[in-house]
What does this fold into?
Amino acid sequence: MKIIAAMSGGVDSAVAAARAVEAGHEVIGVHLALASNPQKYRSGARGCCTIEDSHDARRAADKIGIPFYIWDMAEEFHDGVVENFLAEYAAGRTPNPCLRCNEKIKFAAVLDRAKAMGFDGVVTGHYARTEIGPMGKTLHRAVDPLKDQSYVLAVLTTEQINGAIFPLGNTEKVDIRIEAEARGLAVAQKPDSHDICFVPRGDNAGWLRDRLGSEVGPIVDQSGTKIGEHKGAYTYTIGQRKGLGLTVPTADGSPRFVLKIEPVTNTVVVGAREELAVVQLMGEKTIWCGPSVGSAPLRGFVQVRAHGTPLDCTYYFDGQRLVAELDKPLLGIANGQAMVIYDGDRVVGSATICESA
Amino acid sequence: MSVYLDHAATTPIFDVAIDAMQVALRKVGNPSSLHSEGRSTRKDVEDAREIIAKAIDCLPSEVIFTGSGTEADNAAIKGLFWKSGKKVIVISAIEHHAVLDPARWLVDHEGAEVIDIPVNKSGVIDLTFLRDLIDKRGYEIALIAVMHSNNETGVIQPVGEVVKIAGEIPVHTDAVQSFTKVALSYKDLGVTSMALSAHKVGGPHGIGALILRRAYEIPALLHGGGQEREIRSGTLNAPSIVAFAAAVASKKYLADQVIELRKKFEAGVLASTPDAYINGVGADRLPGIVNVTFPGTQSDSLLLLMDSEKVSCSTGAACSAGVHRPSHVLLAMGHSEITAQSSLRFSLGADSTQADVDFALSVLPTVIARGRAANQK
It folds into this structure.
């Protein structure tokens, strides 16, 4: 096949591209320039937005012996990922921009362009597996549970999965580094990126404050009584306990947690830990990564964070929303988080949490 | 088959230049040394200087060797600015970054003011604008820089007219693309300074020349041993200088032949892509450069596809991270950002052949079709 290797400048995508070449594909390396001014979003050696990263990607392509180009996806990234990230926070939700990037950029803008140009698919360094079976090509967890990225890929439709190649899903990260070393790839020991690539130094609150302002608002308890003040509601996270700056103690001395963020009134609601517990998750904007699910309840797992624990649940689709009934209560769920349903290690689909109870 | 159509970026070094360079590389002797080895190398350098002086029609003492065309442009723009004590720099809107960026640097660091001379749709500078500007503010102008021909479109500029209008104001011209391609006389043109580069004319990389009027001294960028009229210190790069001269002396570039190939290529492009258009058409142009806009495409997609078909061409501008940017030259000619980013530059060289042109034309229809499909996404 003729495929595009999306090369971030990191070790994973470099090894993925090398493996694709060895598998006999005709591979062309492409680095996505995601910031219109490449140093605008972050500085440092990690992430996917620096000049250094594009250089590292180029050198990896040289080593592998494939052509290399840079594709400017800055506008698409800004409109589809950064703006969405801000809008979600401004609306009091907690988004995951990596899912949006996979949904809108890597397996949409890039894959579409690649196909139009006569390529068959896109290879990336994501830790996930695909299998071909009676349901067609399906998306599965990687064998390395610590690196598994199936969660952030759960926004891919069957058609997108058909155009995706994930050569790393069967390998542990530690072995990828060894392999990169053996292949002479200079990025073998380059640190992993953990933070959001467009937020410098992982300072999410500061980044949001710069863009959304820091309007002071009330922190209230569940009865609506004001017990403190905050500087920008969106810098708080549901379930957060520390850094609330509250001086009025509770009657029994128990700690308070952030329960709710209300952007319209710029209010943060706090309360007892038990109030955070939910047993039902409901999500909108459902995407099926394989066959769709109906209203008949099914048993499986739901995961609500990129490296979160898979939780036993019963799930179904009510025609509008994806619903997961949890076997055990879960604490600290924010609207905007993605709920990803698994059947064993197969990704069934995902939705954006809009309500929990 | 692979076809190289990016000779304006760099052109293959001529065999005569490689031969001359190999001989020179094996010689010892700093051309500034006084012993026999030094004198011998010095002789080679001076022979080379005379060959280049003759080719560009200047005095040998007017040739100052530099590390690149960019260095020659920087030395001229900054040197002429500092020498004048005036603050206004007038440049054409389509200058190469080697002129544009030192001018901007002088704005940021030395209080200069830059005024762009606009160009018409064909990419030729507006002489009326320049005349009016000099009438109004001539006494403030430190220098005027207008390239002899544009590197993206090949459009030749009326530099002789600029010199006449300029009167006493110093004029610099970047003649990197024109040298050896079209008739070019430093003396007849009457400019104060001119930039040349070896690797565009069949010489090696890393050597250029600033042609600067005799006894017209400017402040230096590099200080040290006082070589090259104390304007460009640094041990002379004798092997590269010798090779530069050998390439120039070879007269291997046959302009008529290149023009004929270019015309065939242009006709072929327009025949297979009827809505394509050639930028700068109608203007006097260099023999080998064709800049084509393919509506409904993105040049970086086209370049990738051409490259896959083993045809090398250029998208023009890219930023430091390698991201394609709309060309300031095409924007100045009235392009929108979209059409400016739908353009490719093909450039032919001394060794380009009919077979090269035929092959490039044969892959073009598929490339354009795929490029258009990718742009719909």
